[in-house]
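Hey, can you fold this one?
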Amino acid sequence: MKHLVLLILLFSIINLSAQNKYDFDYLLEFDDKTPLLKNSTHTDSTSFYLVNSNQNGYILYVSDKDSLNHHLIFNDREKTKLSFKINKESFANTKIIRICQQNFTPKKKKDINENDTKKYYFKNFNDTIINNEVFYHYALKNNIQKQIQKRKEIITCHFIVKKDILYFIPFLYHSLAYQKWKEDKNTPNGFPYMIYYENFNGDITFKMTLKNSIKIDKSIVISTECK
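Sure. Predicted structure:
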């Protein structure tokens, strides 16, 4: 009996080590706008992200591939980046999405290295007011010479964050912002409301505003040993 228990425990440990499970508790829907600037075209779109409010080391981006399927991009900043399609009805009705790692190429290195993050810093601004509601405001800025920033068209990324859900750690869909936050962790928690890009001249070149948020219970399981 003792040997049977040990075998069961050993099998469980091996099984757990052969898979990675990622939990999501929110679906965020954003209205994306690229404003009309000189020599540019105005475009509107919608983006969807599945996130974990207590863990921002991974993220799932969802878009429409065609009338029947979604296109999903899953990014674990430290381990894996996967791109795949899934039937829309299956995605809506499935609580646990199971993926075989062998069907994808593993990430060989991190998206961002230390030399990249050294060029950036987070700046916290005074609170901002939108429609009589007070928000946190911080930005990811570049610290190289301004002449170089202008020549290379480097943008500043601004984050406008709600103050009423403070357990929600920063929503940072870009890997550079995430890696810099992980180094410093000097920005406030809060529910994401708006993210916008500002160019060197102070023009807003892109803006995404929260349209809807849904509390969910969904997971992705990535197995390294597949049948």
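The helical segments are 2-17, 88-93, 114-117, 146-151, 175-184. Let me know if you want another pass with a different chain boundary.
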